[in-house]
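Supplementary Text 2. Reproducibility record for the structural model of the 361-residue chain.

All settings were left at their defaults, and a single model was retained for analysis rather than an ensemble. We include the record here because the model underlies the residue-level annotations in Supplementary Table 4.
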Amino acid sequence: MKLLIFFLTLYLFVGCSKTPQILSTKMPKTYLVKQDFSKLPNWKNENHTEALNSFINSCKTKKTKKLYNSICQKALKTKDAKSFLENNFIPFQITTKNAKDTGLLTGYYEAQLYGSLKKIDKFKYPIYKTPKDLITVDLSSIYPKLKHYRLRGRISGNKLIPYYKRDELDKIDSEVICYTNSKVDIFFLEIQGSGRVILDDNSTIFVSYDNQNGHRYRAIGRYLIDIGAIDKKDISMQSIYKWLKKHPSRVDEVLNYNKSLVFFTQSKKPATGALGIELTPSRSIAIDRRYIPLGAMLYLDANIGKNKFDKIVIAQDTGGAIKGAIRADLFLGYGDKALQKAGKLKSKLKLWILLPKEEKI
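Retained model, structure tokens:
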């Protein structure tokens, strides 16, 4: 009943206005403009069946079920994906108070590293589990507006103080999942959030994001631009990696600019996002959940290289660098091709969220 009242309220205020408004209690900071499917770029050429299957898969999670309720059940019985989508959802363009603001799409991938379960000369850089002394405080029960924030730190005496920064790794009290041959590779693993490590006995283990030290993420690409190491027009994952490899004596300087530190857990399956299910290449995105709820179905309009990219995607992940309403990070899969695409992807972005049509009493 609460969900029904929410959507009834939403429609009372939507009308036919094309002025950006905050219309959804589920997205209290997000400006929306109602549109039609016929106005979505390249909608008719979307693979609607594949898109619907991605939605059905996401319906296995509580967050998607909560957002879409009975539609998840109805989706299992449909034989015409395009008609089902058009008959059960309405697209709302995600924008800001200033409708002219431009969004940004970047890409990420499942990283590949090489390592060993034992520390040896070749493999000496640790991938850490969440430290035993890291305290995570959820303030939402006291301050509901802070439900998407966590306070992290460690106890000193009777006070909670900031946790150790990246340049204080030697002070961390944590178990090690495995050791790798490159601290730079671990850094990029932290940015991607998940990866697989090929061990020296030819077996493979999967690692995924578990926690973070509480310090704000700072992009080392911005630091390299500011010190004149790489021109802004040339910045990419590949150019950063190349520069670090060429200047090994400055690796710590550059990496430590980002005080944020990610901790991992060993997983039984490949890349899994914050929603808790395995990510689907070109269908899963990371979003800023202050503006877009996890589990939401969206339509994305951008470019990958010289090609247009217009698809239904599902908000199945988050990321420290993903900030803002019209902002997404597209999961591109595993392997060198995915890495090459992700490292260079930086496109203007338009986003629509697909909300259920008004439920009838």
